[in-house]
Design a protein that fits this description.
globular; alpha/beta; TIM Barrel; seven-stranded parallel β-sheet
Length: 335
């Protein structure tokens, strides 16, 4: 949902329905380059602006997703906390020092995104020892998610790494810390959840709630262009595949002509304009990922592509966030 897909428009609409609306901090420096040609400076301004806009439209819960792999991770975290955003979600690496940025008067909750019980244990132990702090919740993202995945390519189709397998493991791991420290740590399931029945199934496995992304792309309030949303609606199941991202991780996207050219070795960046991701090596990268994602955001698929979850092909029409919530609730109750 990064680089403009989930900003204040979608986040506020979700928050107004009782969900947690999440603003993606990825690529804000490019979206707000009119403010400053300096990517980090524009990113800080952009995050402040999106939080302000979301607050204008909603009194609900607003979160910000900040990837550890981002080169401006620290700036984004400090900004989100200073703006008193309700929650920071952080993955794409282990956010081991996230609590260090909290001040005495901070109200922001901290929620790491993990892909294993082992990562959960590492984070909880480090936060507890170093900062006397435990996560306010934990998001467990499985291999059916869209975008960058925290799994090796061979693990993506392995049932031992499925979300259904991971949730009970993380719930069990979290229990040790809950009991020892008398603190409730909700486990939130993510990745490939598309229906009310899916939500029900995850909660039966011990999840306290779910994180959903793909289903909200095809909503009126999603901040992406109509052409971007239409790419989801036009996609068939076989169009959604795993790619090798320039940032060194596998990712799930809607396959297209741009990605086919990359596969054939026909794309090559001239230089790195933004240095937005720590792990991106421009000398070996076939293209600039932030430029590719923002091109797709605007509907220019000749120069980019859309990340998407495994269920993106199930989208058939664009509806409102309110209608999406109503449908999910109906499906959940019927389960």
């Amino acid at each position: 949902m990064g680089v403009g897909v989930s900003l204040s428009g979608l986040a506020s609409a979700v928050a107004n329905e009782g969900g947690v609306g999440v603003i993606s901090s990825a690529g804000l420096g490019l979206l707000y380059r009119y403010f400053s040609s300096d990517f980090p400076e524009a990113s800080i301004y952009g995050l402040k602006e999106e939080i302000r806009l979301a607050r204008e439209k909603s009194n609900g819960v607003i979160g910000v997703n900040i990837m550890v792999a981002m080169s401006n991770f620290v700036d984004m975290v400090k900004t989100a906390i200073a703006e008193k955003v309700d929650i920071i979600f952080s993955g794409a690496g282990l956010p081991l020092d996230l609590p260090s940025f909290l001040k005495k008067d901070s109200s922001t909750k901290l929620v790491p995104i993990v892909s294993s019980a082992r990562a959960t244990k590492i984070i909880c132990e480090k936060w507890l020892k170093q900062y006397n702090y435990l996560p306010d919740a934990i998001v467990v993202e499985g291999p059916k998610a869209g975008g960058h995945l925290g799994f090796k390519p061979e693990q993506i189709e392995d049932e031992h790494y499925s979300l259904e397998h991971l949730i009970p493991e993380v719930v069990q791991e979290v229990k040790h810390f809950e009991i020892a420290n008398n603190k409730k740590i909700p486990v939130i399931a993510a990745g490939g959840i598309y229906t009310g029945a899916d939500i029900y199934n995850m909660m039966e496995l011990g999840a306290a709630g779910v994180q959903m992304a793909t289903i909200f792309v095809t909503t009126d309030e999603c901040d992406a262009s109509d052409d971007f949303k239409q790419a989801y609606i036009n996609a068939e199941k076989e169009d959604i595949g795993i790619i090798k991202s320039p940032v060194g991780m596998p990712g799930r996207a809607i396959l297209n002509e741009f990605l086919e050219k990359v596969k054939q070795g026909k794309k090559q960046p001239i230089h790195c304009p933004f240095k937005c991701i720590k792990t991106c090596d421009v000398s070996s990268s076939p293209y600039c990922i932030i430029n590719a994602l923002i091109s797709a955001l605007k509907g220019n698929f000749k120069n980019g592509y859309a990340f998407a979850g495994s269920n993106a092909f199930r989208a058939t029409t664009i509806i409102s966030v309110k209608e999406t919530f109503a449908r999910l609730l109906k499906e959940f109750k019927e389960r």
